[in-house]
Amino acid sequence: MKPIHCIAASTFLALSSLALSSPVAAQDAAAPAAAPAAAPAAPSGKALFASKTCVACHGVNGAKPRLVYPVLAGQDAKYLLEQMNAIADGSRVSGLDERGYPRTEGMKDVMHLASAEERAAMADFLSGVPAPKPVALDPPMDEARQAAGKEAYLKGGCVTCHGVEGRKPLSAYPLLAGQKRDYLKLQMTEIRDGVRKGAKLAAMMPFARKLDEAKISLIADYLSQIERLPK
Ligand code: HEC
Ligand code: HEC
């Protein structure tokens, strides 16, 4: 397509409001093969995730190694969508980051750039991305600590909702396997202390209240080292 023709055609269209009724005909005259009449396809979840600034904090595939940011890759799609909506409408809040702002605040600001359909497309995209390998602990966890973590998870009753090894949660509940340790610790602490709120969290509260610092640390170490199941 020669640019000069496009400019001429669009100038013509802009100047003559009557011509708006037949823009396809005008384009066809300039470039018969290059202008199909079909509406542009809706952007993919991947493209939306890249263009709505999410990648700045979450990385291209939702798995940036910043330890307090959650792994989104491979997470349950319904859960992801619910959380986007909850962060956008302010019903999910968090504690403060190192600069003194709530960690959810940056996201709350950008979430309004995405419509309901766009949020759903991003949730589907993220849920289908293969989860990254767990971020190795330094120092690595020994077998005794791993066994203690597993026991705390089982005895804590977590398995009922989050599944064996945090890998098979109830539908629309979060996967915990392979989540980042520091993020897990923060969430357990803030759920327990009532900082993070949510309608569905009421069910978890009796279990969360029994978590002390030692158990939170054990369970976070344990879950962070479990690989998510392939989809
Ligand atoms: C300024 C940084 C920032 C940006 C930009 C950002 N996020 Fe987040 N996001 C976070 C942080 C931090 C959290 C965890 C909040 C917490 O600790 O409670 C989070 C949490 C989430 C969660 C919840 C995950 C879970 O396991 O509960 C989802 C889903 C999410 N982000 C999706 C997105 C999408 C989609 C976009 C783009 C529209 C986006 N985020 C943009 C920083 C960001
Ligand atoms: C009765 C069901 C239930 C039980 C039992 C339960 N949880 Fe949860 N948990 C939830 C729900 C629902 C959410 C998501 C809350 C929301 O929608 O905001 C959640 C969220 C979480 C999160 C945050 C995940 C994320 O990606 O942000 C962590 C961490 C967690 N639970 C750990 C645990 C641990 C550890 C136990 C055991 C001590 C436990 N849960 C027991 C229902 C449960």
Can you walk me through this structure?
There is one protein chain. With 231 residues, this protein is mainly alpha-helical. It folds into three domains: 1-38; 45-128, Cytochrome Bc1 Complex, Chain D, domain 2 (Orthogonal Bundle), CATH 1.10.760.10; 143-224, Cytochrome Bc1 Complex, Chain D, domain 2 (Orthogonal Bundle). The protein has twelve helices and no strands. Helix 3 packs across helix 7 and helix 8 (143-155) packs across helix 12. One heme C (HEC) binds next to helix 9 and helix 10.
What key attributes describe this structure?
231 residues; mainly alpha; Cytochrome Bc1 Complex, Chain D, domain 2; 3 domains; globular; disordered N terminus; binds heme C
CATH class of the largest domain: Mainly Alpha
Bound compounds, each kind once, are:
heme C
**Whole-angstrom Rg:** 24 Å
First-residue to last-residue Cα separation: 43 Å
Number of domains: 3
Give the ordered list of helices and strands. HHHHHHHHHHHH
Mean pLDDT rating: 85
Instruction: Label the overall shape.
Output: globular
Largest sheet, strands/sense/barrel: none
Share of residues in helices: 40-55%
* Total of DSSP H or I helical runs spanning 4+ residues: 12
CATH architecture of the largest domain: Orthogonal Bundle
What is the assigned CATH homologous superfamily of the largest domain?
Cytochrome c-like domain
Uncertain spans: 1-35
Beta-strand portion reads: under 5%
